[in-house]
Structure formats: C-alpha cells, structure tokens
Fold:
Amino acid sequence: MAKVITPRQEDYSRWYTDVIIQSQMADYSPVKGCMVIRPLGYALWEAIQRELDARFKETGHENAYFPLFIPESFLHKEAEHVAGFAPELAVVTHGGGKELEEALIVRPTSETIIYAMFAKWIRSYRDLPVLINQWANVVRWEMRTRLFLRTTEFLWQEGHTAHVSEAEAEEEALTILEIYRRFAEEHMAIPVYTGVKTESERFAGALRTYSIEALMQDKKALQAGTSHNLGQNFAKAFEVKYQTKDGTWEHVWSTSWGVSTRLVGALVMAHGDDNGVSFPPRLAPLQVVIVPIWKTDEEKSRIAEAARLAAEELKGACRVKVDLRDEVSPGWKFNEWELKGVPLRLEIGPRDLEKNQFTAVRRLDRRKTAVPRDGLLAHVGPLLEEIQADMLEKGRAFLRENTRDAKSYDELKRGLEETGGFFRAHWCGSADCEKRIKDETKATIRCIPLEGNREDGTCLRCNGASRRWVYFARSY
Amino acid sequence: MAKVITPRQEDYSRWYTDVIIQSQMADYSPVKGCMVIRPLGYALWEAIQRELDARFKETGHENAYFPLFIPESFLHKEAEHVAGFAPELAVVTHGGGKELEEALIVRPTSETIIYAMFAKWIRSYRDLPVLINQWANVVRWEMRTRLFLRTTEFLWQEGHTAHVSEAEAEEEALTILEIYRRFAEEHMAIPVYTGVKTESERFAGALRTYSIEALMQDKKALQAGTSHNLGQNFAKAFEVKYQTKDGTWEHVWSTSWGVSTRLVGALVMAHGDDNGVSFPPRLAPLQVVIVPIWKTDEEKSRIAEAARLAAEELKGACRVKVDLRDEVSPGWKFNEWELKGVPLRLEIGPRDLEKNQFTAVRRLDRRKTAVPRDGLLAHVGPLLEEIQADMLEKGRAFLRENTRDAKSYDELKRGLEETGGFFRAHWCGSADCEKRIKDETKATIRCIPLEGNREDGTCLRCNGASRRWVYFARSY
Structure:
C-alpha cells in the first residue's frame, strides 16, 4: 500500500498498470505474454459472464464446449481465415512423449473445429437454427502485451450460430450487437458507438463485422465486442449443408461473436482515477464496505456493533463487507477500498452514532450523504442505482464531449493531436484512402454507423464523393 | 432416434457410449482423444459448477485464473511431480512463427505455475491462508480415452491453498473432501466411500491424497474427486515462505483438490438405464417436461392450452418445458425425453383433462401418479424432491448390496469375478502386497477409510498382521 500510483496526467499507460497491479486485480506471470487474473479481477469477469450468459440464454443460445486443439489442416480450409491468424499461432508438436503426425494449433478462435462438428450435426432445416456459445480460453501469440487488453492467452465467449438464410444470420448478428451495446451501457456504464467495420478491419473470413466501440479516458477508442455475419464462407469451406423443405441442399448461413477479458480492462480504463479502480455497482464484486471509526474502547464496542448489524441487514440485498480490522486506521481502509473500486462506503463514527446515521461516501466523486440507521436497507439500493446512473451519465457526457466533426483532413490531424477522441468524417469508401489516413495519422475507421450518418460530403483525403460519415479514432 | 441403445447386460461399455451419443450429451471430435461437450452435457457441468462453486465460496475460497502454459523447467522443480506427469504432457514448441527458447507445457495441473505466484504474493502470516480455486481446462495425453471419464483435454476445478501449519492444511483437505462427499450424495444422488489413498495411488508430490469413491452399475469403482494434503513439498520446491509472528521464516503448508467433467460420466453410469440417461432433479437441466396427448383437433386446442398454462405456472419454480410439436407422436416424445434423462414427465390427455388432472410419470421407475391441475405447483416440488431422495436411496441400497467382506484372497478373487463391487479386506500395508494383488486380480485399494475400519486381521496375500480393513475394487 505504500506504493504510489502514477497519476493519469503523467503517464496514462503506467497509471493503468499501476492500478491493476496495486488493486491486485491481476499480476504478470512467468510465462511471456500471459497474465494471472487474481480474485478481484476474476470476480469482475464472473460478473460479466453471469449477466451476458443470462442474456444469451434468454435469446435461445446454449453453451457447449469444443476442443482446445485444432488440427493444423483445419485452419487452412478457409483461406482468409488462416491468413489472418497464421502469425499468431501457438503450435503443439509433441504429445505423450512423441512427435505428432499432424501438429495441433492451440485455438485462436474456434470456427474451424466447430464447423467440422456442424457438418456432422446439421442435416435438415429442422436442425436449424443452431445457436451455440462457448466460454473458453484462446491463445494468440502477441508481441506487445498489456494486462487484460492484449495478452497471449485470454478468456472469452465465442458464439457460433447456423441459419437457413442470410436474413436470419444478419438478424442474429445484429441481435447480439444490441446485447453487447446494452450490456456495455446498462452494466458497465460505458456508452458505445456501434456500426459495421470496413473491409480491412473485419474478421478473417467474415462477410461483415459489427462492433461496439468505447472511448477510454486517454481519448483512445477501444473495440469492446464484435459480431460477425460469416455468410456462407465457413459453411462452404466445411461443407455444412442442410436439406430444405423442398428437398434441395443448401449451405447454412452463419455468425460468430465474442467479448473477452478485455472488458475488464475497459472497466478499469473507463472509470478508474488516480486513487485506483472504480466499478459500477451492478458489476462490482463488493458493492458496499462499512468502515467504523472509533477512538476509545468504549466507542469501539458500540460502533463496531452498529457496523456489524448494518452489514447483517444489508447482506441479502447487496454485496457488503464490514471492515473491522484493528491493525490499520480508518484512513488506511478508505484508501484501500477506493483503490479496489468499491462503489459505496458507509462510515460510522461517534457523531454518526449519536445522530443515528451512517455517512455514505460515493467512490465515483466522494460525495457524502447522511443515511439514517433506521431503514438503511431502503436507502442503500437507491444509492447504488444512483451511482450506476451517474457513472453512465458521466460516460455519456465524456463521449459526447469527445466526439467531433472533422470537416477536413487538417481538422482531423489537428484534432487527433490536440484533443483526441472520435471524429465524424467523410470517407469515399476506398481501402487506399483508409490505409493512407491510418499510416499518416495512426487513426482508423472504428466503425460505420448503421443509421443517422447519411449526408453528402467529400472524402477527407481524396475529396471523392461520400454519402455518409464514419467514426475515426486512434485506438487500442 | 431410430438408433438402438445396446442393453447394459449385453455390453455395458457400448451402452455407455450409446446413451451419451444418442442423448446428444457429447460427441467425438476430429482431435484424437478430445471430445465435444454438447449442450445437454455442458448444462450438467454448469449445474455441477454452480453448486460446487457456491460451496467453495461459502467456505472462503476465491476464484482466480492462471496461465494455460507452464515453462518446462517449472515442472522439474518437484521431482515426484514431474515423474508422475512426464508421460502425459502436450508440448508447445512454436509460437508466433518461431521456435521457442524454452518449450511450454499445456498444464496437466497447475501446482507449479501457482506456487511460482504464491512465492511472489506470500510474505507474512497475515497473508495466510490463501484459498484459491480455478475453473479451467487441462490436458493429459491419454492413450485410451472414454467420453467424459478419460479424455486428453478435460474441464475441472482445481483448488490450491496455503496455510501456516500442517494441521490447518489437513483440516482444509478434509473440509473439501466433505464438500465433495456431500455434493455427490445430496446433488448427484451418488453415495460414496471416502478415505485416504495408499502411497502408490497418491497424487504426484502429495503427502496424503483423500478421495471419494463411487460404484457404477457394472460394479466397478470410479474415483470421483480427490483432495491432497501437499505438506511442504511444493512450498520447498518453489520457496514459498512466510514470516511468522515471531519473525522467523517458514515454508507454507498447502493443499490442492479437484473434480472434473468425469462427474458427468459418473451421473450417466450411476443412473442411466436401457432407455437412456437419467438425471437427479437437483442437477437436471430440464426437470419437468409436459407432453400433451390428443386425437382430434377439438381436443388439441384445449389440451395444448392446459399444457401451456401448466408450464407457465411451473416456470418460476422449476426448469420446465412443454413439448407441443406436431410432427412427432406422444410416444416418440416420451422416448426422447426418457433418452435425455428428464426426471419428471407430466402427461395430459382427454381423460386427464376430464378429470382435471395430469398424469405424472417418474423417469426413475415410470411410476405414475395423478396430480390435480389445481395447485399443480404445490405438487411438483415435492414430487421432484421425492425422486431425488429415491434415487439416492436406490444408490445407497446398490452400494450396500455390492460391498462385501473378503476374508481370504480366494474370496476376493472369486468375488471380483462373480459379483464385482467393493470388498472390505485386510492388507498389511506393504506396497509389494498391494502391487501383487493388483497384478493378479486387477483390483486396487480404492481407499483406506478414516474411521470405522479398525479391527485386527491378517493381510489377504501375505497373512501379515493388519489393524484395519481397506476397500478393494476394480475401477475405471
């Protein structure tokens, strides 16, 4: 605890690492590129899993589990797919003391192994749709890694679905995009832009890739979830066919979609401050911490008792802990629980006891309110919901204030240097212009909105005709 | 569905595979030794996870996540450990297109990587105990695999804890053993024997290994969970030390423990019959299926409506589904839901409608009861609990009837051939006798009970003195 957190203004990247390590969310491991997710970080992932899993199941998806290893030849069946992943693969060459006849790839994603199974399972239109999700670890060899944001091994969910028509696959891809968008806003308190990726940014083997894009405090964008309409590409590569009602055979239409432990990094980067991490109540592993404050022994017994009773009262309704440690001071406790991101602190000292109240302090802004001891339960729920709403509102304001129009290439370049954030700008649609802008500014097209962006204009770089603006930003 | 299930009497092993494949719990994958867990099989694993995870958390454990890969040198730090696992390892030699300087092992278990982290995290007695659990996939190269029971990759939980004293570590190992025992009985409806393993059967690197041992329908034992007191072996290998209150430095005492997707196989083997799998209500993904029976269209609309209403009524209280399919007959539906192990079926036909009732049919024994439509909810809960209790009672009777005394080596040999099951028999304690008995009979000492087995006798094989009997059985 004696360690100092680098302030965000000084070095955002060091701040990020500092708060994760010091709050004990994660740690570096002795395995290059791989991290250890410690209990606080993992509890956040569990909260994310719990909520998303419920939404997937509500919409008819079922969980399954496919092998970690993929025969090397499978990856070669879809040409774009293997080209996209080849540089990032981890390869098992020996098993059980012998060299393998065919090397096995540690899955970087599971399309190929899953489509091999779909080909076996799907026979008739009656078997469709197949709506499957998998919670798993995947491995992509990364040269430059960052805790949670980019690690060689990471945890994720990957949905894989098969349908009778392109329209149905498209609807599925967009249903999931909406689940991701709402989850980001309603649970993570992180508002996002949604849209479709350009050809150069889409998933290797997809027809269309949709994404949710968030903005971090350093004004860089973070892709927080993707949903792909795969068309019939994988179905054709793996011969996944079904017999229609009319008796003809057709390839299925399919989707895949995923979010990963990167979301935990997004929570840190979006809400943390120079005192540590800060979590929205709906996902916070611990929502309320009760800290008693005493000087004399006589005070201690009465105040500790009041704190204990309060924890008892709140237990069924929220995730609460009472911190009765003797060996550290109340101030030390305040710092520790702020470092670890607990959204609401309830203090009770001699004056509070006298007034029959707790002093509630919000992690978000340290705003204090007195809360009567009688009916504590009735007050804490609304306080947590208020914090959740205020965090989202703060995020919305931040995103709004940091989304600007760039009417010219100069305006974009200047904006990227001076303010950062998202820029609405016109683009002609050519991959060449896109690449030149990226090379020259380090900004990419984060997504092309699905609506609300139709307007005539001219491309930033080539002045060619453009019918709609897109979101540019520098990103993680 | 046209496929025939091999009867248990004809070939228990084929029956096992048949019911798993046909009920769509799992499937073979194109990767040697690896299986695909399909939604029904995975839903059982999720139910197992949900219950055990709650019990681990209640007893103070936290989940975390450690890397999939372990540097080869780590495994060599504990001599017995590497000797135990060396023949089963999968080795990653290439990553990101290059040959690695040090090969990485795909974890067969995580002691070594976790102790490397414990060495970093643990400094003082104040940091102890550390009570960590991980839900993860592990890989052990297996030559002969069986769905769920023995696969190259499997899913499991592995608990890893560190303590200030041997007594505390021992208490932890036994606490977990008791959690496993109760879970097996109360949720899986599988009664088990518990005890300590002999030296030759214990975990590579452990001081003592405890296990729960169940009996399958073919009278072979199945080790269903293990809990290890690791002493200071790993602490010494990885230099995990803490400073005591007195300021001296000591190695921690530690435990590890785990159960795996093998438990799903145990559920199939313990409860299934020639019609398919059969699940205890507390774990069954679907607890109740409602099947309407009609002949005329007029009947259909009224009966389907009654079935739908019943499902609506039960929805909040149990996992229920109404099967309104038109294209298959009621008989076909009965077979399908029996195959898939749903514990309770509610039928409603014209006569039931007239009598204002449902006919409830138990998967366990097809016993039928009439259940009034009014107050259906109040009847279904107790019916499910009754099924759960009856399945456990049936399991208890089976275990009791198939546990025998073997007073002589001949009796053991004859018993193993004629009846199978567990045999209480005396053993002198020598590894030599143990090995000879195993070589000659294929039976192993499943466990040495912790109590209730003290009595003077003579070793089955050598007639040497014995102070307690142990459980022998052939096993999976």
